[in-house]
Design brief:
single chain, about 190 residues, alpha+beta, five-stranded antiparallel sheet
Length: about 190
């Protein structure tokens, strides 16, 4: 599985490099290309800057990205718990080998909002709700209109080392890279147009 991950990352890196060299050989960069690149560069950090993107991912996009990192998404069901700004999460169990009787199951909640702005509001709603409970805080991951809460077994000090943490980060990063390329391709003028 590690070989598949490495092959996937290598393929994406080569694909990105090929696109860079292709753009350089076309000649001067147009205003439209510059705007497309700026939109793509801001995809991952747009909420930090207080700006929302028009990018919208589907549940299928997220599932495919997570599965591509070797995450076995089991027990898929809609969760009536933790409704955020009117959006219910799709819940997935991650670990078939959870400790007997522990009641602690590693799982993720995937929220797909209509817009990035709604995701930001949903995240604020989550922070308000969690303050009411004495609970272990899940790791939060966001990308455009997607919010993933990773409920793990680790202590707060070890949360960054939770079993699936890096795989979730990598999946969202790759999803962003693939989408960035699509934005650039969409905004790039055709070589054959006059």
């Amino acid at each position: 599985m590690k070989a598949l991950k490495m092959l996937t990352l290598l393929w994406i890196a080569l694909f990105a490099l090929a696109g860079c060299f292709q753009a350089e050989s076309r000649g001067p960069v147009t205003k439209q290309e510059t705007e497309g690149r700026a939109q793509a560069d801001n995809l991952m950090d747009s909420s930090a800057a207080g700006e929302a993107t028009e990018v919208r991912f589907t549940l299928e996009d997220v599932e495919e990205a997570l599965k591509g990192q070797g995450i076995d998404l089991r027990s898929k069901h809609i969760s009536p718990d933790w409704v955020l700004s009117g959006v219910q999460a799709m819940m997935y169990a991650l670990d078939e080998n959870q400790p007997e009787g522990s009641g602690i199951e590693e799982r993720i909640s995937v929220y797909i909002f209509d817009t990035e702005e709604e995701r930001i509001q949903g995240q604020a709603d989550f922070h308000k709700q969690k303050d009411v409970y004495n609970m272990q805080v899940p790791n939060e991951h966001e990308l455009a209109n997607v919010l993933i809460l990773y409920w793990h077994r680790e202590s707060l000090d070890e949360a960054a080392n939770a079993e699936w943490e890096q795989d979730i980060k990598t999946a969202l990063s790759l999803l962003s890279v693939v989408n960035n390329h699509a934005i650039l391709e969409k905004n790039a003028p055709s070589r054959y147009s006059s």
